Amino acid sequence: MSDGRITGSCDVGRAERMLRDWREAARMAAPRGLADATDTLRLETRVRLLRQSHAPGTPTPSVAPEPPAAISGHLARSVRALPVIEEGLSRFRSAVRTEGVVYAAIQQWGGTVRAHHLTASGKPGWLGWGGTPGHREHFARSVTLPPRPYLSTRERAVATMWRAVPRAIRDAWRR
Q1: Half-sphere exposure of 54 (CA within 13 A, CB side)
Q2: Mean pLDDT of the chain, nearest integer
Q3: Average pLDDT estimate for 86-93
Q4: N or C: which end of the chain has fewer CB within 10 A?
Q5: Is residue 78, in this structure, part of any structural domain at all?
């Protein structure tokens, strides 16, 4: 005969084990997801930089704030995805950047380029461009370049990572 009570039990230990397994799967998969995300951003950046091109000494077909048009492709080839670094328990870092290209920052952010050399008479030098080496068509003591951002914005990078990292964690959990 029932006295009107309903009783039950719950094995919390099983749920705790599942959560612990999921946390470990996430911790192991997160670096792979972050590496995938930064590699995706690296490839997108290279494609963006090679979308337009032109011959040396000719006007660029890209208009600021479009990314710079390629001449040699050196800037696109310099884009690297840095290795994932563990910064602490369940905290990882990576980045996409250029390496070994002195003009990369001025293309990304814009700014003023000044002649840093002196002429034989000791006066400030000139920047020269256009024409052929030794026979430049344009001269100035400084040139201001507009920003031509080619690296992904922070928002785009975060969105890419928010897609890749959870996908890697889900895939690891399903194995």
Answers
A1: 10
A2: 86
A3: 86
A4: N
A5: yes
